[in-house]
């Protein structure tokens, strides 16, 4: 088994989880900076965005989780701030980062859709790398499976199979499924952003569509899902959509509820993203193409003012 602690500096223990998440953020920053250079955007812009976005994502991830697990926190409010005890949600992280990003882009005078398009590959590569933190911590896994399934069916190397042995049982390496799905998504996004038909905002929507499709099916394997009790017709609909997975996999157990929140949210996000792509094109709200120049209204205003002073 891997030791979750990478090294210690006196009383301070540095966890692999933090190192992996930090590495994910830096790789995402590098991708954004490289693409931003094509449009003449300063690397400092994305560095500042990272400094704002990461804390906002952590806060959003925690609040999202606490909101859906309120009964576990309402009698011990201090536990809400003890994030090292676990309990964050990726969709909450995205909500927090997007809100902070929107405010930051407006202050800098940039169009929201143009910048989030640049950041879309950074988001998915961050998730791709970040899932390996779950691997080290032996968390966010799926239901029990046989050792034969991992070694002979999936042909996983020993170092992954051994880490999936938890409490006397082997489990689905859902972290690996999602990481590989995100790797494929990264390649799709890098290909899409060079296509001449792509309009502003559509790479961002494509990221959400791709990620949500994978999250919907992978979430059904997990045993730690946030859930709620929904009408039977909704539960039947979601189970029916997930049913093709039954050919090879068995759904993970649920401690409570009959609908996984992440699965329902994934469906809603896919529908919303597709509708927005269609509506924005029909209404002319996506007239700019991804490859068009990106300009800041604040920079333009400063340049115009300086030109006037010269006259």
Automatic annotation (TrEMBL):
<keyword id="KW-1133">Transmembrane helix</keyword>
<dbReference type="GO" id="GO:0042158">
    <property type="term" value="P:lipoprotein biosynthetic process"/>
</dbReference>
<keyword id="KW-0808">Transferase</keyword>
<keyword id="KW-0812">Transmembrane</keyword>
<dbReference type="InterPro" id="IPR001640">
    <property type="entry name" value="Lgt"/>
</dbReference>
<protein>
    <recommendedName>
        <fullName>Phosphatidylglycerol--prolipoprotein diacylglyceryl transferase</fullName>
        <ecNumber>2.5.1.145</ecNumber>
    </recommendedName>
</protein>
<dbReference type="Pfam" id="PF01790">
    <property type="entry name" value="LGT"/>
</dbReference>
<keyword id="KW-0328">Glycosyltransferase</keyword>
<dbReference type="GO" id="GO:0005886">
    <property type="term" value="C:plasma membrane"/>
</dbReference>
<feature type="binding site">
    <location>
        <position position="131"/>
    </location>
    <ligand>
        <name>a 1,2-diacyl-sn-glycero-3-phospho-(1'-sn-glycerol)</name>
    </ligand>
</feature>
<keyword id="KW-0472">Membrane</keyword>
<dbReference type="GO" id="GO:0008961">
    <property type="term" value="F:phosphatidylglycerol-prolipoprotein diacylglyceryl transferase activity"/>
</dbReference>
<feature type="transmembrane region" description="Helical">
    <location>
        <begin position="174"/>
        <end position="192"/>
    </location>
</feature>
<feature type="transmembrane region" description="Helical">
    <location>
        <begin position="45"/>
        <end position="68"/>
    </location>
</feature>
<comment type="function">
    <text>Catalyzes the transfer of the diacylglyceryl group from phosphatidylglycerol to the sulfhydryl group of the N-terminal cysteine of a prolipoprotein, the first step in the formation of mature lipoproteins.</text>
</comment>
<feature type="transmembrane region" description="Helical">
    <location>
        <begin position="225"/>
        <end position="242"/>
    </location>
</feature>
<keyword id="KW-0449">Lipoprotein</keyword>
<comment type="similarity">
    <text>Belongs to the Lgt family.</text>
</comment>
<keyword id="KW-1003">Cell membrane</keyword>
<feature type="transmembrane region" description="Helical">
    <location>
        <begin position="88"/>
        <end position="105"/>
    </location>
</feature>
<feature type="transmembrane region" description="Helical">
    <location>
        <begin position="14"/>
        <end position="33"/>
    </location>
</feature>
<feature type="transmembrane region" description="Helical">
    <location>
        <begin position="262"/>
        <end position="279"/>
    </location>
</feature>
<comment type="pathway">
    <text>Protein modification; lipoprotein biosynthesis (diacylglyceryl transfer).</text>
</comment>
<feature type="transmembrane region" description="Helical">
    <location>
        <begin position="198"/>
        <end position="218"/>
    </location>
</feature>
